[in-house]
# Entry
Amino acid sequence: MEKKGKIVAVCLSQLTGEQKKPVPRAEVRVDYGLVGDAHAGTDRQVSLLAQESIDKVRAKGVQIGPGDFAENLVVSGLDLVSLPIGTKLQIGDQIRLEVTQIGKECHSPCAIYRQAGMCVMPTEGIFARVLAGGWVKAGDMIQVGDSDEGGHPDS
# Structure
């Protein structure tokens, strides 16, 4: 399993139940989530979805983009659904997350489900709580880090 990936997009929305919009960067706060996002401060502080999952839906002819599944972080190159609950993730030099949930229950089919006949967030989206905050932007590296050791890869 690949242990490193890249943040493709950072997305926020002010209301729950709506698609999120890509932003240039966002502040991530400990035990809170992304500042300005509707899910900040809830049990699902940060949501992550793989670019590869979005591409699966696009292959069915559905025009979708980052944030359309209401995910905060779109990640490329990291097999998110294979990460067990409790896995630690490092984004850049500062941000640390802990996986708390894999998938979610959808209470009613969303617009994308009605278009494509499928929605990937219930089975392929993951949720995490923030252990250490900072700023996140597209292009940042994300890696699996199973230890609480300090230091950076280049130190």
About this structure: The longest strand covers residues 4-12.
